[in-house]
Specification:
- The structure is a homodimer.
- By secondary structure, the first copy, chain A, is an alpha/beta fold.
- Chain A is about 45% helix and about 20% strand.
- Chain A folds into two domains: about 1-225 and about 395-410, Aldehyde Dehydrogenase, Chain A, domain 1, CATH 3.40.605.10; about 230-375, Aldehyde Dehydrogenase, Chain A, domain 2 (3-Layer(aba) Sandwich), CATH 3.40.309.
- Chain A has helices spanning about 1-25, 30-45, 45-60, 65-70, 75-90, 130-140, 155-170, 185-195, 210-220, 240-255, 270-285, 295-300, 330-340, 350-360, and strands spanning about 100-105, 110-115, 120-125, 145-150, 180, 200-205, 230-235, 260-270, 290, 305, 320-325, 345, 365-370, 385-390, 395-400, 405-415.
- In chain A, strands 10-9-11-8-7-12-13 form a seven-stranded parallel sheet, sandwiched between helices.
- The longest helix of chain A is centred in the first third of the chain and has 24 residues, at about 1-25.
- Chain A is globular, with a radius of gyration of 24 Å.
- At the A-B interface, helix 1, helix 10, helix 14, strand 13 and strand 16 of A face helix 1, helix 10, helix 14, strand 13 and strand 16 of B.
C-alpha cells in the first residue's frame, strides 16, 4: 500500500514536471483561454459540484460549524469562483516581463526575464474554492500544480477539478498541468514534502497553524507561507480620534478569522484616556473581549488582565490584547519582540513618526492610516492571491501571479570570450 | 563540550540578530565607510595576515596542490581583496530601491521597497578571500553574517576578520555584524544549518559538491547555492567557425575549475566535420581530453568513448564530453535531460534559432554567442558576487548585493478601512 502510494505520487511528480515544460512554452492566450473555458465549465457543472458538495457536507455532519461553513458551496459561491477564474485570465501575462536590462562595456546585452517556477505543491484544508483559485493562479503563471486539499472536501474538489480539466483540454494543455491528489492517505502529503524526487520546486501550504507548522517542519523543498499573523495597530498620540476608531474597529472586527486581523492594539500613554476609552468602548459594543495591561485596566476596568502570552497570541477571534506604550520607539520594540512579521499599522497625522514606523519594522506589510485587513492580494490590486508569505526569501506579503514566477538571465553577445 | 558549543552558537545567532537591526537602520554611508576602513586595515595588517597564512600553509603541507593554491595569499592578493572591498563600498545602495509603486482606486499608496534579508550564514571551504568578500557583500546589503570557513584557513581568516572588525568599529557598527566561527568542530556547521533558534534567515554554502550537498540535505532554513555547473556550449549549424572556436576554447579552457566552465559540447551533425574537427583540434592542443559519442569519434578518432555518465558529469578539469545533435530542439532536449540549470550558450548567426534556445531553456543563465565563463557577478556588472544560485526561488544566477536583499510593502493611506 505504502509502496503503491509512493509510486503513484512519484508518477504525479514526473507528469507535473513534463507538463510544466508545455506550460512554460505556452502563450498567455492559451493559458488564459484554459481559465475562461474552465469558468464556463464550472457554471455548466454547477449542479454536479453542488451535489458533490452536499455529500461532503453530509459526511461532515459532526464537524464544527466553522468547518462546515468553509466547506459549504452554493450557486452564488460557484459563480464567484467562475468570476475569479475570469479575473485571473484577464490579468496581464506575468511571464511577459523583462525585470531588468543593461549592457556591459564589452557589449554583452543582459536581460533578467520572468520565468515560471516550475511545479508547485499546494497543500490546503477543506476549502473547495482553493482548488480552483490555486489552479488558476498556477496556470496563469505557467506553473504545473499538484493539489492536495482537505479530505472533507474531496468530492467537491474532485468536481471542481473536472471543470479545470475541461479548460486545459480546450486550450490544448496537458491534463497533468493541474493534478489533484485523490487519496485521503496523509502519507501523500509526506511524499509531496519530500519533493517527489526533485519534481516539486515549491510547496505552498494554506490553512491553520498546525498544517503550516507541519509543512515547515517536514518540507525538504522551499515553502512559501505564513505561520501566523500577529498583526498590530499602533495608535500614536497624533492620531485623529475618528480615524483611529474606524481603523481599529475594522482591523479587529471586520473579519476576525483572517490572517490580517489585528490581534494587539498599542496606544500611546498620552492619549490613553482621550483615544483609548472610545476605541475600547467601540470594540466592546461590537462584541470584542478586551485584554489589557495595568495602565489599560486603569482607564477601562472591564478589561481582562493580559498575560505575557497574550502579546504572542493570534486569537483569530473577537479578542484583542491592548497595551499602553510610550511613543513610537516603544511600539516598534514591542512589535519586533512579539510580532510575526506579517502586517502592522500606525495611525497618526505626524508624517515623520509614520515614516519612522514604516522604515523600522521588519514586517511584510507596514501601513500608515489604513486597516491591517488590507493585507490581501485582491486589495493590493494583484487580482487574486494564493496566500501570504512572511518568510524572508523570494516573496513577502500577498503572493499573486507575479510572485509565482522566478527569473533567468538571457545574455546576447557577439562572440565575447572572457579574458 | 557539545552543550557548550550549542550555547556558543546560539549566542552568536542572538548577537547576529541584534546587530542585523543596527545594520538595517544604518545609512549607506556608514556601511560603505566600514568597508573602506576595513580595506585600509587589510593593507596595514598585511604582514600579520601573510604570517598567519604562512602558518596555515605550513599546517597544510600534506594537502593537495590545488587546495594549497586556494589557501595561499601574497601581497598582491591581499591588495586585490582590499580593492574588492573598496569596489563594493562604491556600489549604489542596494537598500535605496523602490521596486514597484502604485496607487489603488481607494487611494492606498503601495510601495514595494528593498530591505535586508537579516542574518546570513556563510559556510565555505579554505579560501581566505571569501572571509572578506562575503563579509563586505553582507555589510553593504545591510545583513549580519556568521562566517564559517574551512579549518585549514582558520588563521588567515581570523587575521582578515580582525581587519573587518576595524572597519565596523570605525563606522560605529556592532562587532557582531560580522562574526567568525572560531571552533573547527564540524558540529558548529550542523548548528548553523538548524538555524540557531530562528536567528539565521539564509544559508549560503560555497565550495565543492560534497559541502553544498551536505548543506542542502541538512539545512532547516533556506539555502542559496548551486550544487554543480554542468554547462553546455551548443554549436549550431549557422555558427561562424572562428567565433565557435574562440567561444568553445574559452568556455572550456580559460579556467577549468570554475562553475561556469563548459563540460559538454553539442555540435550540429551538419557541421560536425567543418566545425567539429577544428574545434576539437584546438581543445586537444590546449591539453583537453575529448570524450565523444560514436559520430564524434568517426570524425575525431582520438576521442575517448563517452558513456552515459559523461553527460551528467561536472569534470572541473581539462576534459570535455562532445555529442553530435540534430538541430536546436535536440540540443534543448539534451540540456534539459542532463544539465544542472546553471549556464548554457548557443553559437549561431541565426537569430530565430538563438531566441528559441534562450526562451526554451530553464537555466539560470542562457547566452547567445558568448562564453559560459561570463557566469560571474563581476562580469554581469554586479561589482562582486557571494555565489551563484541555481534554485528556483528568490534569486538565480550571480548573487550580488541586490540579490542579498528582500522586500516589504509600505502602504500609505488616509484612514481607509476595508468594506
Amino acid at each position: 500500500m505504502s509502496a503503491d502510494l509512493k509510486r503513484d505520487m512519484l508518477a504525479m511528480g514526473q507528469a507535473a514536471r513534463e507538463s510544466a515544460r508545455a506550460l512554460r512554452e505556452s502563450s498567455n492566450d492559451t493559458r488564459s483561454e484554459a481559465l475562461r473555458v474552465a469558468a464556463s465549465a464550472l457554471r455548466a457543472r454547477a449542479p454536479e459540484i453542488l451535489s458533490a458538495n452536499a455529500e461532503d457536507l453530509k459526511a461532515a455532519a459532526d464537524s464544527s460549524a466553522a468547518m462546515r461553513d468553509r466547506l459549504a458551496l452554493n450557486e452564488k459561491s460557484v459563480e464567484a469562483i467562475a468570476q475569479g477564474l475570469e479575473a485571473i485570465a484577464a490579468l496581464p501575462d506575468p511571464l511577459a516581463r523583462t525585470l531588468a536590462h543593461w549592457k556591459q562595456p564589452n557589449g554583452l546585452d543582459i536581460s533578467r526575464v520572468a520565468t515560471p517556477i516550475g511545479v508547485i505543491g499546494m497543500i490546503y484544508e477543506s476549502r473547495p474554492n482553493v482548488t480552483a483559485d490555486a489552479a488558476a493562479l498556477c496556470i496563469k503563471s505557467g506553473n504545473a500544480v499538484i493539489l492536495r486539499g482537505g479530505s472533507d472536501s474531496a468530492r467537491s474538489s474532485h468536481a471542481i477539478h473536472a471543470a479545470m480539466l475541461d479548460g486545459l483540454r480546450a486550450a490544448g494543455l496537458p491534463d497533468a498541468c493541474v493534478q489533484l491528489v485523490q487519496t485521503t492517505d496523509r502519507a501523500a502529503v509526506g511524499e509531496m514534502l519530500k519533493g517527489l524526487n526533485g519534481a516539486v520546486d515549491l510547496i505552498i501550504p494554506r490553512g491553520g497553524k498546525s498544517l503550516v507548522a507541519r509543512v515547515q517542519a517536514e518540507a525538504r523543498v522551499p515553502v512559501l507561507a505564513h505561520l501566523e499573523g500577529i498583526c498590530h495597530v499602533y495608535v500614536h498620540q497624533a492620531a485623529k480620534l475618528d480615524m483611529a476608531r474606524a481603523i481599529v474597529r475594522n482591523a479587529k472586527m471586520r473579519r476576525t478569522g483572517v490572517c490580517g486581523a489585528a490581534e494587539t492594539l498599542l496606544i500611546d500613554k498620552a492619549v490613553l484616556s482621550s483615544h483609548g476609552v472610545p476605541i475600547l468602548n467601540d470594540l466592546e459594543s461590537a462584541g470584542c473581549e478586551i485584554r489589557g495591561g495595568e495602565a489599560v485596566r486603569a482607564i477601562f476596568p472591564a478589561a481582562v488582565p493580559a498575560t505575557e502570552e497574550d502579546w504572542r497570541t493570534e486569537y483569530l477571534d473577537a479578542i484583542i490584547a491592548v497595551k499602553a506604550v510610550d511613543g513610537v520607539e516603544a511600539a516598534i520594540r514591542h512589535i519586533e519582540a512579539y510580532g510575526s512579521h506579517h502586517t502592522e499599522s500606525i495611525v497618526t497625522e505626524d508624517a515623520a513618526t509614520a515614516e519612522r514606523f514604516l522604515a523600522a519594522l521588519d514586517s511584510a506589510i507596514v501601513l500608515w492610516n489604513a486597516s491591517t485587513q488590507f493585507a490581501d492580494g485582491g486589495e493590493f490590486g494583484m487580482g487574486a492571491e494564493i496566500g501570504i508569505g512572511t518568510g524572508k526569501l523570494h516573496a513577502r506579503g500577498p503572493v499573486g501571479v507575479e510572485q509565482l514566477t522566478t527569473f533567468k538571465y538571457a545574455v546576447r553577445g557577439s562572440g565575447q570570450t572572457r579574458p
